Amino acid sequence: MKSIIQIKNLTKKYKIEGREIRALNNINLEINGGSFTTIVGKSGCGKSTFLRIIAGLETATSGQIFGTNKIKSSLVFQEARLMPWLTVEENILFPLKNKKKNKIQPKVEEKLQLLGLKEFKDAYPDQISGGMAQRTALGRALIFESDLILMDEPLGSLDAFNRYKLQEELKNIFSENDKTVIFVTHDIDEAIFLGDQVLVMDSGAIIEQFNLKKELNLLKDKEKYLELKEEILSELKA
Ligand SMILES: Nc1ncnc2c1ncn2[C@@H]1O[C@H](COP(=O)(O)OP(=O)(O)OP(=O)(O)O)[C@@H](O)[C@H]1O
Ligand SMILES: [Mg+2]
């Protein structure tokens, strides 16, 4: 498949009280159109910084990203960031606020159903749980039909049951369309389940890249699965 995003020598430095932090350290990466890339890595290794820079919300200190200026992208933040004066339904609809209501109503119904938010569609963000808020944020990203969807631990605040359910749904949604997804998670099983490729990050660098597309039977082959999981885990511990 064609690579749509090329990242070259990407570095991001922050200064905190005179001390320099390299949040990203010379990242080189190509992302194929239509692929689902998952990123795992310890807290503070630079995952959110990486997504924010790809989304164009922050600038890199040096290096380049090619391909993102021609496509629409959306970012699901680590925290929900809803607009408190809008209901759940209105928050989901927000990116489409200029479109005709009768055209988008079926879409919003579908997202509310998918995310289990139908009963709460008229509630305001301060009346719903953290998990519901996160699902609302997910709905808002899914309804805006962008080519590139960046997700920063979008399932982090969900209970185990909803988390599994949404993992299945995300897999279904994105295996059917040609959208490109970059998905950050702390959960190695989630990364393997969803990813065509899994990237392991450490101290601002991509230290390992596992291509899972080649191993389609991975999920059925328990031994192979555990082997891969162990390998990712040992990369994270190293
Ligand atoms: N706006 C900022 N100003 C200064 N330092 C920052 C800023 N944002 C991030 N950093 C630093 O950059 C490093 C990477 O942070 P980042 O939020 O990207 O990590 P992360 O991998 O997303 O962590 P987590 O898993 O906890 O969300 C950290 O050392 C952090 O302190
Ligand atoms: Mg983060």
TrEMBL record:
**InterPro entries on file:** AAA+_ATPase (IPR003593), ABC_transporter-like_ATP-bd (IPR003439), ABC_transporter_ATP-bind (IPR050166), P-loop_NTPase (IPR027417)
**Keyword Transport among UniProt keywords:** yes
In terms of Pfam families, this protein maps to: ABC_tran
Q: Which PROSITE patterns match?
A: ABC_TRANSPORTER_2
Q: What is the protein named?
A: Sulfonate transport system ATP-binding protein
Which controlled-vocabulary keywords does the entry list?
ATP-binding, Nucleotide-binding, Transport
Highest taxon of the lineage: Bacteria
Instruction: Give residue ranges for domain ABC transporter.
Output: 5-228
Q: What is this organism's lineage?
A: Bacteria, Bacillati, Bacillota, Clostridia, Halanaerobiales
Gene Ontology MF: a single term: ATP hydrolysis activity
